Amino acid sequence: MSTRGARPGPAVYVAGLVALLLFAGFMALGIWQVERRAWKLHLIEQVAARAHAAPVAPPGPASWGAITATTDAYRRIRLDGTLDNTRETLVRAATALGSGYWVVTPLRTAQGFTVLVNRGYVSPEQRTAHTKPTGPVTITGYLRITEPGGGFLRHNDPVTGKWYSRDVAEITKARGLSNVAPYFVDADKSGTAAPVGGLTIIAFPNNHLVYMLTWFALAAMTIGAFVVFVRQDARKRRGAE
């Protein structure tokens, strides 16, 4: 029996449905990456502007509830006040200078509230032998968002004094502090003595262009594969004539 002019077989319709679903899914993912890329580029632009601006006064209690990573992270801050070196916390750190600790010290600001300041890095040998300024100080640095919980696969343990992240709420509780800002500040480099500040890395991975092109390429490959399948099916049917 001749099959010329006959409708495609069931396999073509099934393949068409699968191809349509895959194409729609890949296109949706590609468009999502377009939107994510635009968002990431805008974020990078905003952070760069904040990071290079002149230092401003630390946000006070009235604005604490509105602080977010998107609007405030890496804002340049100037702190005037007094450090409480008796309540410092050593947080495990991995830096360009090696493994060691961040020295996180409460600073009582001139405005009357407290801000946790990451004064910088110390090596294991310097953990008990680093500078501890007394009296009024001025510190500039970046506003950072709290890091709750701990590090990768390692949880903060206030009881044993093992800290793996700069968790503002947990450190505040462990050190018996009050009226503490919900953020902390990474101090700029100041002199050559430990702690060594100025080690903040401002970097945002932006692989959205690669992901976007990948999803769109998969969408195109899906259509191409379906066309090849249809042609092969047609050849088989002609061969059966």
Provide keyphrases for this structure.
4 helices; 5-stranded mixed barrel; 24% strand; alpha+beta; 241 residues; elongated; two-stranded antiparallel sheet
Helix fraction, binned, reads 25-40%
Uncertain residue ranges: none
Rg result: 29 Å
Secondary-structure class? alpha+beta
Strand order of the largest sheet: 1-3-4-8-5
Q: Mean pLDDT, rounded to whole units? A: 91
Describe the 3D structure:
The chain is an alpha+beta fold and 241 residues long. The protein has helices at 10-51, 69-72, 168-174, 208-239, and strands at residues 76-83, 89-95, 98-109, 114-122, 136-145, 150-151, 154-155, 180-187. Strands 1-3-4-8-5 form a 5-stranded mixed beta barrel. Strands 6-7 form a two-stranded antiparallel sheet. Strand 3 (98-109) and strand 4 (114-122) form a beta hairpin. Helix 1 packs antiparallel against helix 4. The N and C termini lie close together (6 Å). The model has no long low-confidence stretch (mean pLDDT 91).
Q: Briefly, what is this?
A:
With about 240 residues, this protein is of the alpha+beta class.
Task: Please specify the SSE layout and strand pairing.
Elements lengths: L9 H42 L17 H4 L3 E8 L5 E7 L2 E12 L4 E9 L13 E10 L4 E2 L2 E2 L12 H7 L5 E8 L20 H32 L2
Parallel strand pairs: 4-8
Antiparallel strand pairs: 1-3, 1-5, 2-3, 3-4, 5-8, 6-7
